Amino acid sequence: MTSSSPSPKIALRRAAADDAVPAANVLLRSIAAALPTVNRPRSDDEVRDYFRDVVVPHRETWVAEASSADGIVGVMVLAGPKVSQLYLLPGWRGRGIGDLFIALAKERSPDGLTLWAFQVNKPAQRFYERHGFVAAEHTDGSGNEEREPDVRYVWQP
After folding, report:
1. Enclosing domain of residue 37
2. Name one Pfam family in it (predicted).
3. Are 64 and 12 spatial neighbours (Cβ–Cβ below 8 Å)?
């Protein structure tokens, strides 16, 4: 399949204060599309406030910005050697942005990474496994605020 217009370029960069709400919106849209059955313990406004007040100013937050009018199309939050969040707008999955984020995370933590994924999120699990992550622990969800069974993944170089 060919397209009459070139694909937008993607740039990864550290999030700035003005990126907090667009980054939160990426998370919200991604979860709504990919995880509609997962309990959401916070309202959309609470998520946006959390990104504005905590995530962007106090966490290592990265955004993927498209050169098109779409603006921010992905977000990744690192907490040391942990990928605490990685979300893409639904229409931007499968375009290599997640690959760029994981490469950046590995560059930032070359000694290894860990992350959690919900057990119902099979596409995410396949994605992480393609990038060398191995399932290290399965839980019943009692340790997360969604109360959703999850799996901890580990990557070691």
Report:
1. 10-110
2. Acetyltransf_7
3. yes
| CA–CA distances in Å: residue 140 to residues 20, 30, 95, 118, 134 | 31, 23, 32, 10, 18
At 13, list the tokens: 């960069």
Instruction: Indicate the pLDDT class of residue 7, thresholds 50, 70 and 90.
Output: low
Q: Are the beta carbons of 107 and 51 closer than 8 angstroms?
A: no
Which amino acid is it at 154?
A: V
Please count the structural domains in the chain.
Answer: 1
* C-beta of residue 78 within 8 angstroms of C-beta of residue 105: yes
Task: Please work out, in degrees rounded to the nearest 5, the angle formed at the alpha carbon of residue 41 by the alpha carbons of 136 and 84.
Answer: 35
Q: Average pLDDT for residues 1-6, to the nearest whole number?
A: 42
pTM over 0.85: yes
Question: Residue 100 maps to which CATH number?
Answer: 3.40.630.30
The pLDDT tens digits for 94-111 are 889 999 999 999 999 999
